[in-house]
Each structure stands twice: as C-alpha cells, then as structure tokens.
Amino acid sequence: MTQSETMFLPQETIRKKRDGRPLDRAEITQFIHGVVEGSVGEGQIAAFAMATLLKGMSIEECVSLTLAMRDSGEVLDWHDLPGPVVDKHSTGGVGDLVSLVLGPLVAACGGFVPMISGRGLSHTGGTLDKLESIPSYNVTPSPEVFRKVVRDCGLAIIGQTAALAPADKKIYAVRDITATVESIDLITASILSKKLAAGLRFLVMDVKFGNGAFMADEASAHILAKRLVEVANGAGMPTTALLTDMHQPLARSAGNALEVREAIEFLRGGKTDARLREVVFALSAQMLVVSGLAASPAEALSKLDAALASGRAAEVFAKMVHGLGGPADLLENPDRYLTKALIVREVKSLAGGFVSCMDTRELGLAVVALGGGRRRVEDIIDHSVGIEFQVSLGDKIEPGQTLAIIHAADSSRAEAAAKSIASHIHLESNPPQHAPTILETIELKCRAGVPPAIQ
Fold this sequence. Notes:
Elements: H1 10-18, H2 25-37, H3 42-55, H4 59-70, E1 86-90, H5 98-108, E2 113-117, H6 127-131, H7 143-153, E3 155-159, H8 166-175, H9 184-197, E4 202-209, H10 218-234, E5 239-245, E6 253-254, H11 256-267, H12 274-290, H13 297-309, H14 312-323, H15 334-337, E7 343-348, E8 353-358, H16 360-372, E9 386-389, E10 396-397, E11 402-408, H17 411-424, E12 425-428, E13 438-443
Parallel strand pairs: 1-4, 2-3, 4-5
Antiparallel strand pairs: 5-13, 6-9, 7-11, 8-10, 8-12, 9-11
C-alpha cells in the first residue's frame, strides 16, 4: 500500500525524495496542497526543497509538481478569445526591455498576450518597474480590466496576483533562505506553474547565459532550457526556448524610464540596437510559429516587419498603456510623461583599444546604486536614473570617446557610477572573438491541445 492510499504524511514524501525514490503524482499533489493549507510547515518545505536539489526529479515528477503548483490557486481561462494565447518569459538580464516591444508586435500579428511580469531582482531589471515609470499605469488592475485590455488590445502586461500559484510564493520564500534557489527542477516548476496558471496555451522561453545572467555558463543555461521545454510540453503547453547571450547589456539603456523611451523609439521605427532587434524578432517569430500564427520563421519575420513598419505594434502599445490607466498620447509625447534625471554626465575612455569585456552584472548593480533598482523590498525606485551605453563588445575605442552616459539624481551618485563604469568596461589591444547573440533554439514537438500522458 502506497502513501497515497493511506493517510498523507509529509515526512514520508520527504523521506522518499531524500532516498532518491520517485514520487507519484498523488504524493506531490498532496504535499503541495498541504503547503497551501498550512499542514506542511516551513521546515518540511525546506527539507523537501533540499532533497529535491540533491536528488533531482524525473520529467514526470517535475510535470506533476508544476501542475500541482498551478492548481494551488486560480487558473485563468481565455477560451473565449478569437486567437491563440501565447507569452514569453525571460530569465532576466541588464537592459532587457524585450517584453515592451515583443508583446505589441505579437499582438499586432493576431496573438493574445496576457503577460504577467515581475520586478527587478538584484542586478536585473523588472518589466513592472519599467512600466511604473509611466504615470498612472496600473500594474494591478481588477480581473475585469485585465480581461478587457487583453481582449481589446491583444496585450496587457501586469503583475502577479496572490490568487495565481500561491504555492510557488510559499515555496520560494523558503528556498530563498535555505540555499535551494539553484535547483533546476524547482526553478522549472516555479516559472511554468505561474505561466500555466495565467492560462497560456503556448510559451517561448528566453534563457540567458553570461556574466549578466542568472545562469553564468552556457552549459547550465542549456540544462535549464531543455528542462523547461520538456516539462512545459509534458504539461500540455507547447514551448520553445532560445539561449541568448548576456555578456553585455542587451539594449542601449538600463534604467526604467530610459528603457521605456528606447522601447517607444523601437516601436515608432527609430534607431534600434542591432542585438536588441535580433532577440526581439527571434523570440517573436518563435511565438508566432509555436502558436500557429505563422507556418515558418521566415513567414513570421515578414509579418513582424509589417506590424512594425505599419505602426500597428505601436498602436497596440499605446492602447494598452491607456487601457491600464496611462496617458493616451505617451508615444507622441514621451518627454511630457517620462521623468528625467537632474544630472546627466558622460563617462569618457582614458585609453584606446577594443572593448574586450563588459562586467554586465556590475553594470546592472551600478544602475541599482543610482536608485534604479531595489536593495531591499521596501526601497522606492527612482525611475529617471540609469545608464545609456555608447559602446558594445568588439567596438574600437579612441581615447576620450564616450563609453556611457549616466542619468543620476545627484553628483555623488553620478561620480560613483562613473567609477564603476570605467572599471567594468575593459579594453584590449586586439578585438575579441565574435560571439553569437542567439546560441541555440531548443524545441520539443508536442501537438497543441493534446493533454500529456501523465494527466
């Protein structure tokens, strides 16, 4: 007789995982139910997390964990929408404003994107923090407003509600203080349970690697991306993952209002960073293909080009902003609404050479030190501050050339940021070897709408 056929004892579930024995779906579901209702204590959550970190999970176990966490709260239903419900998730980086441009592009091509985003963590920026630099933009609308904006615009970017995947919040709080955040299986279940709870039918993952990413090395990023694709498809959500480089900031700017300005410039057809455009279009194309809105990447890219050139994507963004409480004319008058820093200062190079390395994590932390991110949960963000990067890896630099432009609230913070930038952008006499921006695409075929065998 198995534990699932008798009275549930969380310590027996922990014991099995500790000993490396597989857990069945009923055991995992009971454990997660206990987490939510309180019959499984923090100590037991910690023991389970550590056992999972050390012993790992099979694909089937991770799918069961993901589904149980999804079902621990509300699961949104978008069956009444006249098109595919699709989203993108990034593991985070510096200057990663992709969501602000990708969402409008995909919506302009017929997708519906109910994007539930997060805030900045450590050196990485957060999409919600960027959007809150727009006056009156509401990242926590009522469910009725959220649904209306998604239906009317094809896109709404908001924050997670307490009703979605509440088990994840409880488990993550324990992981954060028990050195178990790094578990690939728990990372996978955390990400995917929230996406599934948001009612997505299709997903594209942007898994970043490099000195500005959560996964510093390519091998670890590949393992995470593969597991995300396998588990998402096993849970009935066709998913593709791209491995993208984060050895340098992705966009020209890092800082909330600065990144919104850059996104608006992108959507209005202005000057665009080549790396940013490559990642935006690659991820957007995958979203169109995986959701059936395009038959091939080539067709998808053609549709995306048309959506950008025609202004339809810009219209989607403007309509979403207004629908969620922001100004109706933000795209026409961004300087009227987006705050500007009191101090603007250039950082010039003292030497010449080729940009051989950018310590991306440290550059992201320089933005945090300016006030553009949080050191503590209760910190208030200064949306006006940040850094505009004027160079990229491989660029040839002359003495006196501008490396970056600092936007700061006061001269002392500007001075500290200037020192940080000067010490974390490295020059060498020879150009570095070129590295691709998008290293790999990982996909696992799964027919849409077909429930996995485990269910």
